[in-house]
Structure formats: structure tokens, C-alpha cells
Amino acid sequence: MTTTSNYNLPLILDNSINDVKRDTNALANAVDSAIATTAGSIRNDIGVMGDLTTADKNSLVEAVNEVHTKATPHLGTTTNSGDSYSITTTESIAANRKFTIKFNAASSTVPTLKINSGTASAIKKANGNNAKLYASVYTLFWDGTNFTLLGEGGEYGTAGAADVLAGKTVGTDTGLVTGTIPSRANDQYSSSFYTNGSGDLVTGFPTGAYLNNSGFGAGIASATINDPDFIAANIRSDKNIFGLQGSIPVITSGSDPAQGVGQWPDGGLAVYPSEGYRKGGAGAGEIKVSVTQLQSAEPDLSAGNIRSGVTIYGVTGNVTPRQYAAGTVSPDAGTYNAGIREGSYQMNRISVTGLSFNPNIFRVRFKADGVWSTSVMCDIWGYGLGCFVTWWWNNEYWATEVVTGWAGGTDIQMSASLCRAMVGTGSITEITWEAWS
């Protein structure tokens, strides 16, 4: 018999002698056998509908829809007393089943969950630590002992608030925490520093994160220590301190001229040096004061005030010093007639010998009748010396003659070998004289 290719159903050929009853029955039996075989195969593949654990067993589609809806059931929103949470639901949560639930408040320490009349059990993280809950929706897995949060992500590191920049947050086992490291942006200043005497500048900065680079380039943070004295004008020009080249001139010349001089109230010399650094000592920046500068501070520094042959600070003197002699003598015996310009007088004469110079100034005083005379008359001739001769009275006990340019007389002379003069009248007992060249 000829049959179909899929289910082997009998075919009626054109040249067949047909028997309607027979052929119809044969076709029916063939169809029934094919359907029975296929249905058995389907039943073996998907199982028996009655064995489904779903509530709906009417059709495979309805059963699948029920599984899709209730595979991860949502239990609703909890109530709580502190960290003890509970919920009443129509769902039955067996061991090794997951579900979603919304917690109505955040937890603080060790949260627990009680479903319907079950036992309150701990809510854990995947690593076994107590969960930190917020007022939000979570997916939990019930293993028969504890509830475990699902979808918490990977492991957390060891960073805490003290390891994170202020204003930033980081996830931890206990939830998000906010960092406490202060940001030291904008070149925070430090005023805490010291030097150790070995060339090191040791500074302390406030704790924090220094993220600005202030022109140093990417990847280099910076902070600023401010000292208004750290400028080139305070550093020697031959020194470079922490990259700052000094500008104070270093003076090593042994003939650095003074900028000016003056005189202190006590007569000391004040010298105004050039600005700069000097080591001090011989050959290390001496200050040269010129003669002109010295004379500007002390006008009396001149040749006319310095003895001839003597040089003081480059000024050679031209003053010839006066020679001096003094003594006490008695008048010569007798009196002598002194013809002088004012008349003729009987006067006492004195003689001084042994001088080492020709006197130009001569003065005397005398005691008459035992009393120093307050009225002294003195007459001096220059004998062949071109001396000036004069006389006068005064009330200072001394009579002084300046011997300059007049000659005459025979009884009075002025020379190194003999100084002879006429003095006042009366009983003269003592005569004191002085002579200067």
C-alpha cells in the first residue's frame, strides 16, 4: 500500500478498486496510530500536566505565565521596631527561594526580618556581615537560616572616611561614608617651619590633600610657605638659596671708597660705606676715606695746623714750632737810664743767658717791695736784630713784648746768647721771665 511520507497514512491510487468502507476505516486507524505516537512523544518531553506544581494546571501556557509572575515574588512593604522588620504576605517563601521586599526605614545595627508567623532571622550581606538597609527595595535570598542581600556588587576595599577627600563618598560594608580629608587647594600656606643648621628647611603643612600644581605641571602638587624676608635683596649676590639668587653686592676690594663722612657729637669719625656685604678684616673690603673727605669732617686737618715735617692722614704740616724757655732771676746791680719812646726812666735791668734760640716773644713779671706788681712796665730792645720795641702797662701781672722788626738801644738786647731787658722801678726782689722763639 502506498502511504504518506510523514505519518504513513494510506493513499488511494487511481487504478485501485475502491471499497469505501474499508478504505475509510483504514485511513481512520492510520490517523489514530500516528496521533497516539506523536502525543506520547510530546508527553514524554514535557511531562504530565497534572504533575505541575503551579496552581494553574489547565494549560501549559497558563502554568508558564504563573511561573513567570511568581518566580521572584514581591512581598510588599515592611513595618519595623528599630532594626526588627516584619511583613505579612499571602506568599509562601520556601528555603532556597528569592523575593523582593521594600523596607520602610533604614537600619542602624543588626537588622532582622520576620515573614508572617515565621522566626525573625538576620539579614546579611554576601560576605556574611550584617546588612546596612535604607528605606528602599531589595532582593533577598532565604536559605532557611538567614536572609542574604542579592546584587550588592563586588568586595569593598579598606578605605574609610579618613582615607577619602572631604565631600566625596565611598562604599563600605556599613554603607556609604563621607570622606574627611580636607582639600588644600589654592596653595595653602604654612607658617610652621624651621632650619636644622645643616642646610635643610623643614616645614610642616596642615594635613590634607594638595591638588593644585601652581604652574609645576600635571602630576605635581604644591603648597606655599610665605616669608616676606625671603627676597633677593636680603641675600648676598654670590649665594643662591633654594633657587633664589641674591642681589646684595659682595665687596672684596681693599680700596672701596667711602660714600661720605661725618663727625659724631663726641668728635669721632663717622664713615658712610657703600651698600653691600663685607667679610671684615684686612683685605676683605676695607673702606677708603680720602683726605678731602677727612677734611670735610674735620676742617682743622690742614698743613697750617700740623708741625712742619709731620704728615697726618696724607696732610704734611708746615708749622714751625715755637721754642720755649722760662726762669727766675734777680735784677742786675744798680739802675739804668732807659730812654724809650715815651721818655726816660731809671729802671732795673735783667740779663738772661744760655738760650738755645733767638726769642721773638718775651714777657716778665716782678715783685717790688715784696709784692707782685700789677702795673708792669717792660722795655725790650733788639740789639742789631731788627726787633720791635714797645712797652705798656697792664693789670695782669705780666708784661709781654713781641719782638718784631725794630732796632735800637744799647742796654737791652735779644739774642740766644744774651736776653737783656729793662723792667719797672722800685725795690725789685724777684723777676720771672718767659721767652718763645
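(the above was protein one; protein two follows)
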Amino acid sequence: METKILYVSGVEGNSFYIGDIRVAGTKPWGGGRTIEERKTSVKDILYALNNIYCPSHQPLKSAEEEAKTLLHNLSVEPTASSNRLKP
């Protein structure tokens, strides 16, 4: 599954989004302006998160195996809807 990481500029500062969910920075009131956008896969994002939060001393697994491990081990609450990027 593919998604996008966006770097968005707003009046009060910049922010980062994965898909339409703000994961860092201030809310871009008035919609903001996308400065940069990169395509990535959900598997690669989960792989990175798993290696940050669940580091292991075992040989690296494939991104798909890491994603399955992360989904199995973590229970993440959905981000508040106020963090969604408005079109």
C-alpha cells in the first residue's frame, strides 16, 4: 500500500503529514501550502517505526515481516481528526 509524506508550510510554522494525518508540527491554519511531497509505502513506515521503538539484536527482517511484527506487537490509538489535512 502506497502513501505520501508531505512537508507543509503554514502561517504559524511547518508540519509533516503521513497521508492526511499531521504527525509533527503546527496545524497549518487556512490549509497551508505543500512544500515537498514524497511517495512511500506503509510497509516502509512501519519498518522504520519498528526499528525505532522495538529494536532487536536479531538479523533484520524484510519490511513486510517487520510490518507484521509491529502490527502484532503495538496497539496504536488513531490520531485525533483535528490532525487531518483539509483539502
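Reviewer note on protein two: The helical segments are 42-53, 63-73.
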